[in-house]
Amino acid sequence: DRIPWLCTLHDILRREDTRGQDTILACSALKKMYRHVLISGASAIESNQPEQPGENPALKILFVHLDGPMDIIAGRLEKRRGHFMPLELLKSQFDTLEPPSAPENFITVSLEKSLPEIVLEIESTILQG
């Protein structure tokens, strides 16, 4: 049920890339397949064949894996007001998570850092290319 939504997000990323715009997208792409759909769109699920010349090349996406212990994340969720995700779903999110691994283009940032430190680490990685 997530695939059409992920394909829509891919299309938005593709559109902005075509316009020469850098884009930041926040979503919980917990599974490797979800991240693959964000990079390649519907072709990621329609075929396991390599892209043919002339097709849209895969998008270059840097995935930021925000990593931290469940208790820290639970504490932050408890402080949120009006957010759609209840604390009760957190364990299922951890159970579903397939952390990024090579050859995916990603960085892992610890949630045990302060928000300014997290932002600085992400910005530094982006600026380094």
Topology summary:
Elements: H1 3-18, H2 32-40, H3 43-46, E1 63-67, H4 70-79, H5 90-96, E2 106-110, H6 115-128
Parallel strand pairs: 1-2
Helix pairs in contact: 1-2
Family: Belongs to the gluconokinase GntK/GntV family.
GO cellular component, one term: cytoplasm
Protein name: gluconokinase
What would a concise description of this structure say?
This protein has 129 residues and is mainly alpha-helical.
Characterization of the model:
With 129 residues, this protein is mainly alpha-helical. It folds into 2 domains: 1-61, no CATH class; 65-128, P-loop containing nucleotide triphosphate hydrolases (Rossmann fold), CATH 3.40.50. It is built from 6 helices and 2 strands; from the N terminus they run αααβααβα. It has helices at residues 3-18, 32-40, 43-46, 70-79, 90-96, 115-128, and strands spanning 63-67, 106-110. Strands 1-2 form a two-stranded parallel ribbon. α1 (3-18) runs parallel beside α2 (32-40). The longest helix is centred in the first third of the chain and has 16 residues, at 3-18. The N and C termini lie far apart (33 Å). Residues 49-53 have low confidence and may be disordered.
